[in-house]
Amino acid sequence: MKAGAIALESRRERTPPAPNPQLMPSGVLGMLLFVFTECMLFAGLISAHWVVRAGTNLPWPPPDQPRLPQIATVLNSGVLLFSGGALLLAHLAFRRRAAEARTPMLVAALAGAFFVAFQGFEWVRLVAQGLTLTSSPYGSFFYVIVGTHALHAVGAILALLWAYGRLARGRLTANQLYTVEVFWYFVVLVWPFIFLRVYL
Amino acid sequence: MSHRDQTTRRQDAQERRWLGAVVLAALLLALLPADAWACAVCNDPKDKNRIAFLATTAFLTALPLSLIGGLLAYLRRRARREDQHTP
Fold first, then answer.
1. Residue A156 included in any domain
2. pTM given for the model
3. Are the C-beta atoms of A193 and A39 separated by less than 8 Å?
4. What ipTM was reported for this prediction?
5. Within 10 Å of residue A55's Cβ, how many Cβ atoms?
6. In a domain, A12, yes or no
7. Which of A40, A51, A52 to mutate to test the interface with B (most CBs of B within 10 A)?
8. Which domain holds residue A184?
9. Is residue A11 part of a domain?
10. For chain A, how many structural domains are there in total?
11. What is the C-alpha separation between A174 and A22, in angstroms, rounded?
């Protein structure tokens, strides 16, 4: 009896402890850390723009440079925010039934693609009007900051399309969707700050 | 006390002395130029420029702390909730 109790106790001691519950999917955590570094990148760019703009003795924007298309960009920003809303709907639909998320996810990706295409169209017009990367600090900051955001938007759209492809084949996991979502929400939410600092 | 313990203690004391010397040297160096400023360009006579420097310094200091702090606070809250639900 005593020997049996000792054996039981010994077995209990050898039983490994229950693993800690995962507080956050690894993909989401990794994407969050990546997004944090990207936040610092944009914070650095916006800060540099702020300091140069405050330190210049010339009017901002310079008189010989074209004005940025504010109203058109407000409308385009609306498209980007709408895209974020569509992805939120896709998230809610995915939790109900994965297949229901297809349409809102595709809408989110298409709205994002429209945003980037419209930005490209505006760039072509601005370059034609004389605003280039080397025309002035105004132009340099505009193209570097907005271009960096556009690069992130393109990356996030590709990620969305990848997720959509997996969803269409019924192979998208919730963690994969959440990871892509974090990236896209970052692209959507950082844009208003860029708009307020660069365009206004 | 074993020979090994004595050696470790001697090494610890030596490290503490080095650390003290480095801190003291840093303090002395900081005192040398009486008008040393932490940020040599934060004293622009233009108000707008000075505000931009100070605001961006505060922004760039606070942002990483709030990002990492926010994530840690969220994970801590989740962990506590998990603990409460675990029988």
1. yes
2. 0.76
3. no
4. 0.73
5. 16
6. no
7. A51
8. 25-49+71-199
9. no
10. 1
11. 14
